[in-house]
Amino acid sequence: MRRTLVAANWKMNGSKDLVQSLIGELREPLSSLDNGVGVVIIPPALYVSDVSERLAGTSLALGVQNIARWDSGAYTGEIAAAMVADAGARYTLIGHSERRQLFGETDDDVAEKVQQALNSKLTVILCVGETLEERQGGLAGQVVRNQISRGLAGVSGQGWQSVVIAYEPVWAIGTGKTATSDDAQAMHREIRSLLAELGAPADDVSLLYGGSVKPDNAAALFAQPDIDGGLIGGASLNAQDFIRICQSA
Ligand code: PGA
Q1: Which burial class, exposed, middle or buried, applies to 22 when counting CB atoms under 10 A from its CB (0-12, 13-18, 19+)?
Q2: CA 19 to ligand 1 center in whole angstroms
Q3: Cβ-proximal residues to 136 (8 Å cutoff; 6+ apart), any chain
Q4: How much is the pLDDT for 236?
Q5: pLDDT tens digit string along 159-197?
Q6: pLDDT at 244 over 80
Q7: Which ligand 1 atom sits closest to the C-alpha of 97?
Q8: Is 134 a catalytic residue?
Q9: Domains plus CATH for the chain?
Q10: Count of CB atoms within 10 A of residue 106's CB?
């Protein structure tokens, strides 16, 4: 169902100490938000159980940054969707640009992971976005369309209820450069019309923006009609910044 969401992607950062201090600082202010925003914390998988215990009794949800393409078996180093659900997480990022660029993840891998997630009743946060070169070449819309139509090729019917899309232009991630609110809105609108073409209930799918979202640009982005929240990297590691971003959603 379409709702406002702000998700904290910690990437490969953190420690037991950070889990304790950051969740300690976030728990109270984020539990008492009165703007209806759903907050999802996405730590490294190793800390999911720890974060889960510390979030107990709050409305904050938990996610992971990646899952395996397979159910179970001889896949050393991998973590199955069912294990993630078992550990108390409800969301998984899939196809983050760092996984696509650094680990060679393809749209076919993404599509398999989406199926795994849906089979285990996880909500997918599918990450899509173009590189600077692709944007400068006028290809941004086509790249994003391909990533979505291929990555979500196996989704139908009720499955759409468990899909969120995060548009994250690669050139804006961790760089301090953000798409203007107008450019971000234009891409989000295009994504929504693509979803309708794909037979999805387009108005019910939450679309997040990601890429250098900070307290001082969050409100303008979130005010756009087709932007339903954000996927926050760097700023999610600072409690005060993350709280301010959640407050502006
Ligand atoms: P950033 O990362 O906010 O640090 O740019 C966003 C992301 O990669 O999800």
Answers
A1: buried
A2: 19
A3: none
A4: 98
A5: 999 999 999 999 999 998 888 999 999 999 999 999 999
A6: yes
A7: 8
A8: no
A9: 5-248 (3.20.20.70)
A10: 12
